[in-house]
Amino acid sequence: MVESDKQSSRARKQNNSKRAAAIQAEQTAIALKKEEAALLRADTYTTAPKVSRRTLTREEREALAKQREAENKEAEKLASTAAKGRIGRWWARLQSGPNKITWGMAIVALGVVYGDIGTSPLYTAQTFLSGQGGLGNVQRDAVLGMLSLVFWSITLITTVKYVLIAMRIDNNGEGGIFALYSLIRRYGSWLAIPAMLGGAAFLADSVLTPAVSISSAVEGLQTLPPLERFFDDNPSLTLMITVVIIVVLFSVQSRGTESIGRVFGSIVLVWFSFLAVVGLCNLSNDWSVFEALNPVYGVQFLFSPHNEAGIALMGTVFLSTTGAEALYSDMGHVGRGNIYFTWPFIKVALVCNYFGQGAWMLANSRNPEYTTLKTLNPFFQMMTPNVRYIAVVLSVTAGVIASQALITGAFTMVSEATRLNWMPHLQVRYPARTRGQLYIPVVNGVLCASTLIVLAIFKDSEHISAAYGLALTITMITTTVLLAVYIWHDGHRLGAAMFTVVFLAIQIMFFIASMAKFLHGGWFTMLLTLAILFVMYTWNEGTKIERAQRRHMRTADFLPALDKLHGDFRIPYFADNIVYLTSDSETKRLDTDIFFSIFADHPKRARAWWAVSVETTDEPFTREYSVENFGTNFLFRVRIRLGFKVSQSIPAYIHQIMHDLSKTGELPKQKSIYPKVDADPDIGTIRYVLIHKALMPESKVSAHGAFLLQAKYAIRHMAGTPVKWFGLAPYNPLVEVQPLFVSTRRPPRLKRTDTTARPLPTPSRQKADPAAIPDPLDTTTGLGELVKSVESSIDSPEQRPVPKSRTKSDFTRADATVVSHMARKKRQ
């Protein structure tokens, strides 16, 4: 009885203690939950970089739906057209190929492509009269000779060379000298020289085009009778108006050339129609000027003693073709078919206007009202005062459009130069739906500042035109060389030879004639050309030197070291995730830059290392990624592919990828118990790393190579940090500088001067610093052997331990015992 009471008492005590323990455990759990909730509550004050569950935004879905609807309507229209006979089938094939024509893009083509060549009637005839000494010195043979040279220059250079030949040679729809070089660079490394030179000259001339086009149009205000006195009293007013227009023009570039082109296209349609009508009105009094269609008139006057300008006349004639290169460069913006469709109208309008100016000059060559004028512009003078008001307004607008053509061409050229690694990677935006419509903020700012500098130096269009066109002749010559190489290797060797002889002869004559402008302002464009060429050459050669030092490591080379570092508990985490952003597209191997960044100085231990590269696709809304994990759960090589319209919000996409891999089990859980800046408790801390290269002073590289590398790094510094390209500004990325591993010079060996022999120090018997103890499982060290012997003796007590004298360790057996117990605990 007593025994049973004791047992029941013990049972009650046990139950009470269990209940107390359960209550205590429950209270502890509640306290932990409250603590965790209190800690994570801070996450509500920041916003985690998250992505939507959808792969497209509502605006993107609407854009794609409209695009599909338009394509369906176009397909139905083509099907119905094809059923109407041979012409219908031809039209259906045309609309299905690269020469597709649409009314909307044809309007855009007018606004984007033809602005520069459309303003040439404003100043070509004016420059011609100035070179001949005024209207009073111009005879009939001079006017017909000038018109003949202008007509055949436009026909041969613009129509034949660019429209009929060059535009058939494109690189995935893109035109221009860099796209052409990309097609033929495999035929010789020397081709980079004309390509760089031509591209630099084109970009240099892009600076002068806005200045000369807009200023010459604004100066037309001085020809209006009510404003003549006002402008005489304020001579700097035209310069101020030009500056305001240019600043406004560059400020709207971020809206995209498609939206600008649609507005400008309608205006250009009116402008060229106006050119044709005005020219025809003056032609009605003297149709005999069409005798100038005979090229003999041009050749005779060029070498005539009555030609006051001599060979320099060809420099004036060249002004009528200045928009031809921009026409080829902008092909990717509007499509080849739309240029084919619109060029005949443009050519007819230009010819009518030039010949109309010629008819007016013949009719007024003896008019004392005009022969005494200091400056005379036939374009404005051939109109009645009432029509002149309309001409001034339209010409100012046309000058703005001409500037737009060169600006968009410059964006394209810089983008293509970046792909060739001839220029630093700049931030590129794509405001429109098509790949060719792009905007580069840095280039826009540089062009705007350079154009304003040109206006500050030259003041008016007369002085700017003295520098204009010289650099563009270089672009045309180099384009001819590259086109000839393409035609030669395409199997048309006779055609290539004829093409080279004819067009090089014409354009070299243009260049020689334009060199007369060198001392009158041409030096400025040549200086700009050399500066841009220096940037391209420096970036290209510096990149070659860097790539020659780039090494990739195989999996067997880098995985053992990373595996050991990943499990080394003695080294604290640098971050839970270390993300390296790289331009290297290799996914099966690891760049040594990343490997040495992890192990440089203090090793950067992490739960996971990431090497991420981002590439832009030709589709607008692509969002996809691929992962290579090398068979591990701590090293990931990620390649993200984004459409050209998709913003590079890299942090948000990195978080999504980490969540995806965590759900599939490829990435171990990284639950965070403390608040973080990115407010994502399911992913550990992330540290972004960007690696820049630097040249070591003792590197074995020539003085020329060292100068190129230093210049490249200076250009990179001025071009801007890549932090903005990846959208990392709020995340404080680590920009790490690594030495460029060029072979280093070996200095001579040092000679020891103290001859006194010193005894070797006796091995220390003190206990080693636990922080410096190597991995206990590493059997390549003396301590590892001691640990192994201690564990063997513990597992087999009867086995005699290895004597200490047989080991090569400076550690004691007591150290080995301690480390052995630590290793056993870790394994358990």
Automatic annotation (TrEMBL):
Recorded topology in the membrane: Multi-pass membrane protein
Record's keyword terms, sorted: Cell membrane, Ion transport, Membrane, Potassium, Potassium transport, Symport, Transmembrane, Transmembrane helix, Transport
K+ potassium transporter integral membrane domain boundaries: 106-555
Location(s) in or outside the cell: Cell membrane; Membrane
GO cellular component, one term: plasma membrane
Top-level taxon: Bacteria
Bias kind Basic and acidic residues: ranges: 56-77
Residues in K+ potassium transporter C-terminal domain copies: 579-737
Record bears the keyword Transmembrane helix: yes
Record GO terms (molecular function): potassium ion transmembrane transporter activity; symporter activity
InterPro entries per record: K+_transporter (IPR003855), K_trans_C (IPR053952), K_trans_N (IPR053951), Kup (IPR023051)
Entries under Pfam families matching the protein: K_trans, K_trans_C
Transmembrane residue ranges: 101-123, 143-166, 187-214, 234-252, 264-285, 340-363, 389-417, 438-458, 464-487, 494-516, 522-540
Catalytic activity, reaction form: K(+)(in) + H(+)(in) = K(+)(out) + H(+)(out)
Residue ranges of the region described as Disordered: 1-23, 50-77, 746-828
Family (UniProt): Belongs to the HAK/KUP transporter (TC 2.A.72) family.
HAMAP family xref list: Kup (MF_01522)
Role, per record: Transport of potassium into the cell. Likely operates as a K(+):H(+) symporter.
Name of the protein in its database record: Probable potassium transport system protein Kup
